[in-house]
Amino acid sequence: MNKIQVKIPCRYVGKAAIVYDIDNTLLDVSERLVRSIIEAGGDPIHGLSKMSLDIRRRFWSIFLSNKYIHLDKPDSKAIEDVNRKYDSGYIIILLTGRPEYMRKDTIKQLETYGVKYHILIMRPNNNRDPDYIYKPMVIEELIQKGINIIEYHEDDIKTIEKISKLFPTIKVYRHNASKSNISKFF
Prior knowledge:
Elements: E1 16-20, E2 27-28, H1 30-40, H2 53-63, E3 73-74, H3 76-87, E4 91-99, H4 103-112, E5 119-123, H5 131-144, E6 148-154, H6 157-166, E7 171-174
Parallel strand pairs: 1-4, 1-6, 4-5, 6-7
Antiparallel strand pairs: 2-3
């Protein structure tokens, strides 16, 4: 497990913070997911675990690119929640499994949908840890740097379970921005 380095401005230390995932929490990524599976040579009816390693690798290469990011749709209720909390004075941290090389298009996407936030933390390009390993490492780093995380919003059940177990004082909320049940794909 690699240590994650997160830069936090001093002005956020000690303040109440709320962390949100992006994909399938603030945005419905089901269209990008299906298009990526098809292009990789998979069948969108079946989950990734039933596909060959080669197809899964191609899928992740396509899904974690900017090629189909324009297909993502905002979840207006979740974005209203983020913006309301931002306006109430909470520090909003977006923590995504998207790799750093997607930062420019991710920022443009967030601006287009009017998402207010203070910090955007993206996965280092060379990090291949699953979200349930990567995201708790980032949460631990934020806490060690003095960020007072009071809520965490996520769609992935394994990540939710891990964060709930490791950080019992953080209120954890499960989201599903997708109109379909895309969790079956992972």
